Amino acid sequence: MFIQVIKSKLHRVTVTESNLNYIGSVTIDEDLMEVANLIEGEKVQIVNNNNGERIETYVIRGLRGSGMICLNGAAARKFQPGDIIIIMSYALMDFEEAKQFKPVIVFPDTATNKILN
Asked: Which residues are catalytic?
Protein backbone atom coordinates (compact mmCIF):
# COMPACT_ATOMS: atom_id res chain seq x y z
CA MET A 1 0.00 0.00 0.00
CA PHE A 2 1.18 3.52 -0.82
CA ILE A 3 0.18 6.67 1.03
CA GLN A 4 0.76 10.36 0.43
CA VAL A 5 2.75 12.17 3.12
CA ILE A 6 4.12 15.67 3.60
CA LYS A 7 7.57 15.93 1.97
CA SER A 8 8.42 19.64 2.21
CA LYS A 9 6.94 22.70 3.86
CA LEU A 10 7.73 26.41 3.80
CA HIS A 11 5.86 27.54 6.90
CA ARG A 12 4.66 31.14 7.04
CA VAL A 13 6.33 32.90 4.13
CA THR A 14 5.07 36.26 2.90
CA VAL A 15 3.72 36.82 -0.61
CA THR A 16 5.94 39.47 -2.22
CA GLU A 17 4.15 39.73 -5.58
CA SER A 18 1.11 38.60 -7.49
CA ASN A 19 0.99 38.62 -11.27
CA LEU A 20 -2.43 38.05 -12.79
CA ASN A 21 -1.15 38.18 -16.37
CA TYR A 22 1.29 35.28 -16.00
CA ILE A 23 0.33 31.79 -17.19
CA GLY A 24 0.20 30.27 -13.70
CA SER A 25 2.23 28.75 -10.87
CA VAL A 26 4.20 30.10 -7.92
CA THR A 27 7.65 31.65 -8.25
CA ILE A 28 9.86 30.86 -5.23
CA ASP A 29 13.33 32.20 -4.37
CA GLU A 30 15.82 29.49 -5.36
CA ASP A 31 17.40 29.59 -1.87
CA LEU A 32 14.03 28.73 -0.34
CA MET A 33 13.49 25.98 -2.90
CA GLU A 34 16.82 24.36 -2.05
CA VAL A 35 16.44 24.45 1.71
CA ALA A 36 12.86 23.10 1.44
CA ASN A 37 13.86 20.35 -1.03
CA LEU A 38 11.55 21.65 -3.78
CA ILE A 39 12.30 21.42 -7.49
CA GLU A 40 11.09 23.40 -10.46
CA GLY A 41 7.84 21.97 -11.80
CA GLU A 42 6.97 20.20 -8.55
CA LYS A 43 3.31 20.22 -7.56
CA VAL A 44 2.60 22.17 -4.37
CA GLN A 45 -0.40 23.04 -2.27
CA ILE A 46 -0.55 26.59 -0.96
CA VAL A 47 -2.75 27.80 1.88
CA ASN A 48 -3.38 31.45 2.67
CA ASN A 49 -3.44 32.24 6.39
CA ASN A 50 -5.07 35.62 5.71
CA ASN A 51 -8.19 34.44 3.89
CA GLY A 52 -8.29 30.62 4.03
CA GLU A 53 -7.80 30.08 0.28
CA ARG A 54 -6.15 26.83 -0.82
CA ILE A 55 -4.74 26.09 -4.26
CA GLU A 56 -2.60 23.53 -6.04
CA THR A 57 -0.02 24.67 -8.58
CA TYR A 58 3.61 24.08 -9.52
CA VAL A 59 6.92 25.70 -8.65
CA ILE A 60 8.94 28.07 -10.85
CA ARG A 61 12.49 28.99 -9.81
CA GLY A 62 12.83 32.59 -8.66
CA LEU A 63 15.88 34.81 -8.30
CA ARG A 64 18.25 33.42 -5.68
CA GLY A 65 18.42 35.54 -2.53
CA SER A 66 15.45 37.69 -3.51
CA GLY A 67 12.97 36.35 -0.96
CA MET A 68 10.47 36.21 -3.83
CA ILE A 69 7.16 34.44 -3.39
CA CYS A 70 4.99 35.39 -6.38
CA LEU A 71 1.56 33.91 -7.08
CA ASN A 72 0.89 33.93 -10.81
CA GLY A 73 -2.18 33.68 -13.01
CA ALA A 74 -5.59 33.11 -11.43
CA ALA A 75 -4.00 32.62 -7.99
CA ALA A 76 -3.16 36.34 -8.04
CA ARG A 77 -6.84 36.97 -7.26
CA LYS A 78 -6.63 34.82 -4.11
CA PHE A 79 -3.13 35.69 -2.82
CA GLN A 80 -1.96 39.28 -2.47
CA PRO A 81 1.38 40.83 -1.46
CA GLY A 82 1.67 40.78 2.32
CA ASP A 83 -0.41 37.60 2.78
CA ILE A 84 1.16 34.95 5.01
CA ILE A 85 1.09 31.52 3.35
CA ILE A 86 2.22 27.93 3.80
CA ILE A 87 3.64 26.03 0.81
CA MET A 88 3.60 22.22 1.00
CA SER A 89 4.59 19.35 -1.24
CA TYR A 90 3.76 15.69 -0.76
CA ALA A 91 5.35 12.37 -1.71
CA LEU A 92 3.80 9.00 -2.45
CA MET A 93 5.58 6.19 -0.63
CA ASP A 94 5.22 2.76 0.79
CA PHE A 95 3.38 2.66 4.12
CA GLU A 96 6.37 1.24 6.01
CA GLU A 97 8.78 3.73 4.42
CA ALA A 98 6.41 6.56 5.36
CA LYS A 99 6.63 5.60 9.04
CA GLN A 100 10.38 6.39 9.00
CA PHE A 101 10.29 9.37 6.63
CA LYS A 102 11.16 12.82 8.00
CA PRO A 103 9.83 15.81 6.03
CA VAL A 104 11.77 19.03 5.50
CA ILE A 105 9.98 21.83 7.34
CA VAL A 106 11.43 25.32 7.01
CA PHE A 107 10.52 28.36 9.13
CA PRO A 108 11.88 31.42 7.27
CA ASP A 109 11.75 34.94 8.65
CA THR A 110 8.23 36.06 7.76
CA ALA A 111 9.30 39.69 7.21
CA THR A 112 12.02 38.89 4.65
CA ASN A 113 11.45 35.26 3.60
CA LYS A 114 15.12 34.66 4.42
CA ILE A 115 16.37 31.51 6.11
CA LEU A 116 16.98 31.91 9.83
CA ASN A 117 20.11 30.27 11.23
From this structure: 25, 58
